[in-house]
Amino acid sequence: MDAQLIAAQLGVAAGLAGAYVHRQGPPRGWLPHVFMAAAMAAMALPEHDPLGPAGWMLVLGCAAAWSLGRPGVRPGRVRAAAALDLYAMGVLTLLMPAVHGGGHGSGHASGQGAAAASDWWSAPYAVLLIVWAAARLALAAAEHRNRNLVLASQPSSAAATEGAARPSVSSACSAAMIASMAMMAFAV
After folding, report:
1. Coiled-coil annotation: which residues (predicted)?
2. What's the confidence (pLDDT) of residue 59?
3. Where are the alpha helices (DSSP H) in the chain?
4. Quick one: pLDDT at residue 33?
5. CA–CA distance from 96 to each of 51, 92, 162 (Å)?
6. How many CA atoms lie within 13 A of 57 on its CB side?
7. How far apart are CA 80 and CA 65, in angstroms?
8. Could you give the CA distance from residue 57 to residue 118 in angstroms, rounded to a whole number?
9. Contact in structure between 60 and 90 (CB atoms under 8 Å)
10. What is the pLDDT of residue 154?
């Protein structure tokens, strides 16, 4: 098995794990993870991808806008994290053909097309991965601080601890998604 296929499978697993953790919440909580898992599955099987990179960018962008939802439904950091994941993944998916020689799917780069593509895509792709990881780290740290404040103010409340693991699992799923996108781009 090549590294790109393994990376795509890691991304599918991360997306489905995120959806599973949020399964009892509103669709704005679990559906973004399903969209990301579907996009990763399309990258794993590009010959069966009905949308292509531009189609996935459109789907992920619309899902990001939808997941932001209306204020007050979910905390802003949670909505921002989901939107960030979807937008970043959409742009990276759009860049993915350049990563692989300009083809439709996630095949291997070869020949002159791959050499020409490798001249321009690697820097923006790497920068976006780093910015995505840093932003998710900042959001996870803010959520961790907020969760600690809530738990400290209500130490015996079962309601306060009920959803305490969800942001951590979402952050872990995002980290796996970032790692899989990096591995797909930079694996040889």
Report:
1. none
2. 92
3. 3-21, 27-44, 52-68, 76-99, 111-118, 122-153, 158-162, 165-186
4. 85
5. 14, 6, 38
6. 10
7. 10
8. 21
9. yes
10. 63
What the block records as the tokens of 95 is 């860049």
Residues 98, 85, 181, 130: what is their CA dihedral angle, to the nearest 10 degrees? Answer: 90
Distance of alpha carbon 161 from alpha carbon 155, whole angstroms? 9
The pair of structure tokens assigned to 113 is 């097309």
**How far lies 131's CA from each of 34, 85, 88, 141, in Å?**
23, 11, 9, 15
Q: Tokens 């970043």 appear where?
A: 88
Q: State residue 47 phi and psi, 5-degree precision.
A: -70, -15
Which of 60, 56, 11 has its CA nearest to residue 179?
11
Q: Which residues of 33-63 are buried (b: 16+ CB within 10 A; e: fewer)?
A: bbbbbbbbbbbbebeebeebbeebbebbbeb
Query: Tokens at residue 136, please?
Result: 């998710």
- Which residues of the chain fall short of a pLDDT of 50? 101-111, 113-117, 159-161, 163-165
Rounded Cα distance, 163 and 148, in Å: 12
CA distance 72 to 74: 6
What's residue 161's pLDDT?
47
CA angle 18, 135, 88 (to 5 degrees): 65
